[in-house]
## 1
Amino acid sequence: MKNTKQVLALAMAVAMAAGLLAGCGSSASSSAESVASGEATSEAAATDTGSSDGTLVLADTGFEGKFSPFFAASSADQHVIDLTNIALLGADRKGEMILKGIEGETREYNGTDYTYYGPADCEVTENADGTVTYAINMRDDLVFADGTPITIDDVIFNLYVYMDPTYDGSATLYSMPIAGLDDYRSSMTTLSKLIAEAGEDNTDNSLFTAEQQKAFWDAVNEGGTAFAQEIVDSCVASGYADEGDVAAAASAWGFDGLAADATAKDFFLAIAEKYDWNFASMEAETAGSALSDLIPADVYAYSTTGVATGADVDTVSGIVKTGDYSMTITTTELSNSMIYQLQLPIASLDYYGDRSLYDYDNHSYGFKKGDLSKVRSVTGTPLGAGAYTFNKYSDGVIYLDANPSYYQGEPAAKHVNMKETQEADKITGVQAGTIDISDPSYSLEAANQIATINGGNSDLDGSVITTRLMDYRGYGYIALSANNVKVGNDPASEESKNLRKAIMTVIAAYRDEGINSYYGDTASVINYPISNTSWAAPSVTDDGYKIAYSTDVDGNELRNEMVQSPEWRTYELRDVDGFYTEPFQFVFEEGANTITLESVNEPMAIKSITLFPVEELPTYAEYLKKYENTKKGTDVVKMEAEVPYRTSSSTIYPIEDRASAVTSPSDTTHTVLNAIGGDKWQTSGQWVRYKFTVNDSGMYTIVTRFMQNINDGMYSSRILSVYSGDGVAEGEDGYYNGVPFREANELRFNYSTDWQSEALRFGTYGTDAKGKRVMQYTDIEMYFKAGVEYTIELEASLGTMGEIVRKVSESLDVINNAYLSIMKLTGSTPDANRDYNFLEVMPETVAHIIIEGRTLRAVATELTNLAGIKSSNVATLERAAWLLDRMGSDPEDEIARNLSELKSRIGSLGTWLNDAKTQPLKMDVLYVQNVDAKKPQAKANFFQSFAHEFSSFIQSFLRNYNRMGADTLDVDEAVEVWLAKGRDQSQVIRNLINNDFTPQTGITVNLKLVAGGTLLPSILAGMGPNVYIGLGDDSVINYAIRGALEDISVMDGYEQVTNTTAGDPNQQFTRAAMFVLELADANGVTHCYGLPEEQNFPMMFLRTDILAELNIEIPKTWEDVLGAVIKLQQNNMTIGMSNDYKIFLYQMGGTLFADDGMRINLDSNLALDSFEQMCNLFKMYSFPYKYDFANRFRTGEIPIGIASYNGTYNHLIVFATELRGKWQFVPLPGFKQDDGSINNVSVSSVSAIVMISGADEKTKKEAWEFMKWHTGAQCQIDYSNEMAAIMGDSAKYATANVQALESMPWTREEYENLNAQFTNLASIPNYPGAYIIGRYTKFAFLSVYNDNADAVTELLSYITTINKEITRKRAEFGLPTLEIGQTLAGLRRDQINEALESLGSSASAYTAQIDALKKAMEDIPTYSTYCEDVYIDALRSAGAALGAVDANLFGDIAKKVTECADALKSYQASYPATTGTTIY
């Protein structure tokens, strides 16, 4: 070895050319030799490398000793094959095939031309019948290392080895569509598979002997079972399964579906079936022992022993010899991978086969079909025609000698030793001189090590080591070990899965940073499963390039899940509403100043805060002057808008446009995601980014094909920011770092009902030929430098519309305040004939009306001038201005008469303002192009439109809209899930199933979107689903009691899934959520019939601005509410709430039902008090009964209201955008307790996911897995975020999952208020007959409200009727009942007495205990209302004493005594000791 300068390369380079071995032994680059144009052909010869005897030492890792071109598996073994063999066809450095190897092909790579040669040429012809012919012509001067000539017969021999039915190497030629190949292989099977399929009890030994059969099953029963048992033991040790649970272990190992009582043998049979009974392939499943050590060698060979199973097909018709050096291969169809299969090494027929068995004309190909024993016998000693010949393999070293017969000349390095080397030694070995050429894995750490060895030379070339980086055409994935990355000791737990998912999410979000930190600039992120260095790698500049979307079974593209990728940004504080595009400017006094930032929503990290002097951006004219003599660029770069580099929000995502024939791309047969934005990209501050590079420096325009058809008569605005990458320094031409000039803050996209193609442009006012003021537009031109990667960012902004919107917003505030002032004086429905003296009482209000009418009219005029048309948005402003003018011109006559109309106009202005604040824009493509280039086609012509519309019409009958999003057609094996929600919700759930549930569990789901009301008739018809999402809690019990739902309380893991323990970190739901899904049977055993999905409940909504103005504190108690309503009514305002007495009932400690649902509890003292207090709010305090809460909340007439939190919030957030910051929702008011606390419990309802009865056990288990996943925290979070992405703030989701609530997109204040109520909920069970209660309580309320009836009397009049219906329904379903007027305590008392009387003489010995029990029962003053604890405790003690003396004789009696005492105890809450107290 030479101790002077050594060579280190990431891909080994020896002999004739650089790159003989590339990457990880990729044969694609080793099969063709290359010569760089104008440079030496032998790197090894040019550099005096190697020892004095001409030996070159190469480092390699992972030799397995399989040096056969047919069976080599490891990359190291493949390296030996590459050096000792030549391939039929080769590939260039990018992996593109060389089809003219004999004459050679010259191709450019990284700026250098290389000429590639090979043993053969190949001509590919696509035939008219769809078949494809590969015509191969070989050189006629090739010889193997032993001197034997190479002919086409050697190639044919090779092909038939690869196609043999018993071949089990790594090559996959047998999977290609070669004509006749299927028939050739299917006429024979392996002996192992044949015996296995016949079965252990087989008696037909026509194809194999009885001895073979016995030996086979003995091996399976002993060795095979032991092999599987090792896996089971490993899973048990790792915590994946319990001792003896083979099915669970198999499932953890990836083999689902085994019976619960499966044995280790059953497990082994499942493994064998997966691998088609090939024992060698089954070795991959080992948990320790090799299968070859457990099964006798002769039986092990059965899997490579062929047996003809019928009429033998002895040839492949698609392979035809046409000459001594030529042949054709014909495939039945075009296959993209077939050409790559022809890179096969050419192995010698004489050496690997038997020449005496080769007779092409008689269909004999060098071995007996099904018998590859000769081929396998020389696996360790290769012979080929490569640059080197194999000498020996000894002590971890492969000894190779130069091949003097090599067709491109004997190599300069006479000997090559390939030395087994550990990764850690690959650099130090070169340093020490024991290795000449090595291939360490590259990383920044490795680079630093090399640089240190070289004395700190940063370019990695030094006096000790020379490094050459070579492109690697492979790609890598990142995987996590479930056994190492887990929570606790259970790698399969949901927590462990969530941990791994979280880690992978972070890795995905930071792929750029991760790769850069490890590889530096020598690797890059890929978005396709193909190396960026491959010739086939897609590029965003390719025509027709599109993102690799997932598709459903019909080829419809599915929107991929977006992943957050937090980044550091330099952000200038600015107006969040977008009224002002320029950053805020602050005035600070000299000295210390304090800046306070308050968290509102979403996490954020602040690295620094910088104050800088105000600097004006240059104008566009000033920018253009800098480049006035610059040439025009010639490049054209197309960017598909639906493939942005980054977006600011998950609400901005690819969408489908089917309206236009020229949208890119377009397809009427499938869903194609071909645009971005629309109403999903419309909020100020939302941005998208794109990256591009031009090949020619110069001036360019950025042209977009866009549509803005939502806000008629207005335009949408965008802010353009540009950022330049490496290759241009600050101050140089083409450098950008943000908004390039002032006008880039105000780019305009005008309204049109059709697509438009325009350059990015801004508008300024000018005058036309007639002197009329008009808007004139300027297309912006920008300079871009060749080779620099630019990032452009388009951010939604109000632009110059900001001033208009701000004026209307301020005007609306004034008008709304004027309305409130008038309403405080007149009420909401003033008397038009009354004289209110408006001018004297409120002159300022009248003045405001007049001024704002003029303001709105001026804005309408300005908007008309901007758009050039008078639109519906202008009409809205003009109608409001006309009304204000009228009211201001004659206040005494017109204000009272038109107040209700003003209220309507305020609503219209609020809607106008909400629309105007949005800046919707849909984009198809962006072009960076020559300033004079033709703009892309905006609208389809007549013929394009006709063809597109006609095709769309036809496809509307053919497309399966019900199956959109489905990932399987095999619905028989899938869990069928029905969903009665919207299409957006269905698509989100489908995406989550495809991206999360099915990959995690392997369970296929057939999700169907159905109409509401479909479930009942489908169940009656016996055609229902396995799982139904969104069943109301009242319906759950109705279905369950009729046997239509499965009891999930018996399912595995039920207790963990339904954890309701408050404060427990593993809590999933509140007790209120689970309580309503449970029902006790006739024996008192509780069953559960669903998991909560959504949970909704009332909260209190407040207009904080009005309450502050009237000096009203936020009500905490109902006493506070009454105090507030007096102040409100003094100002003609009021409070809104439903006539729901149950809030009062449960806050006072009562319940709706008594005695486990056997009777209604509304005749209790608390229930009567709660109903009366509720009625008094409407009767005495004039709360409105029927009203539009959202509208009256918006106008301020009802500034306090109690309503369902989720639906009301979602409505207000988009309905009353002008009120942002002026309202909030808080927990309900309640009743003050003796200890000073406030009971403000809210009564909740849930919708559930349920399992329909009738499925088999396997489907039930899979359905249960889906239910657990769907209601789990992560799925709930993902679903909520995805819905918010689609529908914005109006899609807040009322999850029932406690853990998920914290991650919902609420602001900090909203979450705190919501969580305060969420943790304080009650729920009402849906006992049989419950449906009747609401009907009669409503009757009672209406009698009080309309007829001034007594609340208590009216409610009591319906108690018997309600109880009769409850009793009837319970009897119908075989549940315990009570007589009318009877209580459970009374029933148990009677039953106890009857039991005692029936005892007779058998109980004579226990007279004292019996008398004590009778005395305790007689002392109880009442069995239907309040009973003191002293009596209840005495009853319990007497019952327990009696049961203790003889459990067999008195056990049932003692149980009934306990039930009687429990019932009496339950009555205390509803019948307080002191009754008749006033609640407030």
## 2
Amino acid sequence: MRDITLVYLITLSLVGFFGCKDISDIKNQDMPFKKISSSYSGIEFSNTITPNLENYENLFDYDYFYNGSGVGIADINNDGLQDILFTANQKDNKLYLNKGNLKFEDITSNSGINENKGWASGITFVDINADGWLDIYISQGGPYKPSSRENVLLINNQDLTFTERSKEYGLNDGGISTQSAFFDYDNDGDLDCIVMNENQFFGFDPISFFKKFEDKKILMENSSHLYEQIDGKFINVTEKAGILSPTFGLGLCITDLNDDDWPDIYIANDYYLKDAMYINNKNGTFSNNIKEATKQISFYGMGVDIEDINHDNLSDILVLDMASSDHVRSKTLMASMDTESFDLITNKLDQHYQYMFNSLQLNIGNNKYHNIAHQLNIAKTDWSWAGLIFDFDNDGNEDIFVTNGYRKYALDNDSRIRIDKTKKDYNNKVPIEIKKKLYNELPSEKLSNIMYKNEGNLNFKEISSDSNLLEPSFSNGASYADLDNDGDLDIVVNNIDENAFLYQNLSVENKIGNFLKIKLEGKLSETFAKVTIYFKDKSRKKESKRVRGYLSAVDNSVHFGLGKVTKIDSVLIEWNSREKEVLYDIDANQNIVVKQSNSKINEIKKEKSNFIFEKINDQILFSHNENQYNDFEQEILLPYKQSTLGPHISKADLNGDKIDDFYIGGAFNQEGKLYLSSKDGYFQKTNSSFKNDSKYEDMESIFVDIDNDKDLDLFIVSGGNEFNSRSGELADRVYLNSGNGNFVRDTQEDLENYTISGKTVTPIDYDKDGDMDIIVGNRIQTKKYPIHEPSIIYENINGKLFNNTYNISPDFENFGIINKIITTDFNNDGWNDFIAVGEWTNIGLFLNENGKFRNISYENNLNELYGLWFHIQETDINNDGLKDYVIGNIGNNSKYKTSFEKPLKIFGSDFDGNGTHDIVLSYKYDGQYVPLRGKECSTQQMPFISEKIPSFEEFANASIEDIYGSEILDAYERKVTSFESIILINKGNNQFDIEKLPQIAQSLPILTSDIIDINNDGYEDIIIAGNIYNTEVETPRLDNQFALILVSDKDTGYNVIGPEKSGLYLSGNTKSIKVIDNENIKILVGNNNSSLDIFEMRK
């Protein structure tokens, strides 16, 4: 029995150990939320905002006018009930005392909370004087001078009244403050403060904007501010701490991102400023690690929350943006990004790859993150503000709640054009009546808030309509807490021009799941203590933090949903002071109070990473150097560059030492390199033939005996998009092995005749004549994506290759854009078959029937499975003697969406008759096919569009036939029905079952792979990787920074080893991966326009 002084247990009488339901079983009467009326709750609050066009209080003159305000929940009178404080921009803030049973009393008038009230935005709580009572800190901004927007600190007088003392404490920050948080950043035992600010230089172009901050005084005024508490006063240490930087701060969260027991800072920035991920250097300074930790972020960063969504005890990061979920809104409201501006922001101004979508940064360990928002289908939630991660239904999975709506759409494209024209007509002196008319014409649309249920295994489902949350509004700040002390989390939302929402959570009443709630009483009110629960060989970890979402503060107790779990084996509480406490045998469905004073200092040993592979500095110094060519200059609507597909690595034992040698292809004007093994490692073997042929762009290569002289020759496919159609630089090449690693270019007449942009090659003896024939998979007519070129089967006759495709496989010629071909014998009849896949193609199974091929994909319905396929890996997943195949698609982490019912389509033609090729991407919306790309970029490619369809509203409501006329019906057309990577499980007799790869494997494009038996169990495992960096600027890059190891489950699927265990963190735009299985296994990773990554297995 534990000493009662160690822990105080409150067993809830309302909750027993009940049988739990899954949320999917809830009937209408079991809706998880119930809206509580203001007449019942007593909450009458609206953030009413009234524009005044005769001063600066309007959207034209103050960009942040409709950014809304927050809500804070905390127990201000220590009665065990959570109270609610609403902040307002122009009206009074309001404080509501919780009287129990979701009834609240408005105590605003006598509380003193509106002393020095200005344009109130964010709210947080802190016991700043350590008297055991929570004080209030309100961040203020508005279109006012600094002295009129100072933040306020309301000291709790312990009698439901407060006294404003911000100046006395040094916390009367005069920036355009949005939110603040208190934390002990230097671990000296007292609370410090971060004040997040907006920027007075909104509306400036990026170059002019950054020019302003050459003046350090102006920079300080427009930076977020860090205050260190010294002897009870807060001193500005922003510059000293290394966080002096311009901000457009909207989202703030303090957490220990790298698990080193020091608090870090995340600030989500609006506009073109990159987010700040300030990692604590443990010496009073911070370093912004956002570019090193992430590959891409949101553009208009808004609310932020940080929590573990996938039970790996690593904190993931949610940042909201403003991408429209509806086709019409996406075409009318969203501005386009041009290549020049994108390059300016990402490269010249040292910002980041930023895209106008929500981001969910999955923590993959080693302080690296992978944005999977598109895969989770949470990337587009409209103009969103608060994003909160919490377990609303107590099922043990963290869900996501999003607030929505914007009072006036100033970014409406048609309105923007009218306003710009009016300003020009009146020389920027627009009469007030005209200004009012334009203002009143701005679109306004209430949108519903959104709840995503976490169904586990990286699957989220929107359930807003099934949760009683589907009510259109202009919602901003939001918070959650167990307001009725029944064990589930209720929601409070602050709305513009409408009464606040209070939603009662009915999960406990509906007996959906068990819970455990832990209140942490630390030496400081803001403890940031970590709590880990252990049960049934599982663990869950959370951190106490108050400031989350948008401008708001939540109850900083730690709440665990437990699902059907009724007993916790142990609970570990870790305080930042290195004190810890362990509790054992904890029953579910109770509140536990843990006091830091009862904990003991105990050095907690962090587990060191013991990666399977380590990155090494090898003597192989190859770096792929991509030539400068902008595919988008001529093909504006191209989905991604066609000229950046290399390098490819091929391997073989060339010198008979039973160690793999390898060739790495070069880019245009870069020779490929051959590396031979020696007793001292690898050395580069110089070949003049390769140097002489540097004018080619190498694609795949293979070592194969072309001339039947018992040594391996080299076949290299030429490709690229920078060459003119049928250019001589597109000829494939054969290099004959003359011994000792020397290769000489061989004359091959048919190769010189068929100059086509290719990609892939495989050797095959299709006619059983003893020599190796060649199949080449070709891609596109250069500069005319997606129009494909014919692929070719070359028959080998006495060492010379002749195109024999028409005679042995005529339907293969017109298969489409081919990215991968492999030779295989899928029916084990002794005749070599082949499989081909590509972009906008199905999966081609070409059965060899006595030297001629027939595509039998229709026998398995593979002829209807169209993808953006890039790769094939032969394996035998279950060792049944039948060859299985992993087929690599681009995965589900793309902004593009498709299905069998609504396939994504692409059209190619010269739609405007100007002699250049045009592309139209299209998807199905409201029963008709509509353009995927917006009006501005489409008009850049085809200027006739602006004349035919002058307004964005018309374009948004037009089908592709409305825009392009009958020409679209006669255009080159292809489709995609799935983006998922799959496994073809061979059942024999040319029959295959289709299995999907695991969810995390669907988060990357599988461009490359190789076989490895990682656990030495005799079953083939597979390393997969791939990236597509060079997307058009409005499409997020496919830029994961890791490889995955697929471990055979010896049946029909794979388990996954991620980089946090394997150590396979990749550095670049990965195109090729090869396992060199010598004395010690090495992995070579070929990256486009970058150096080679080399990993070695730890012994």
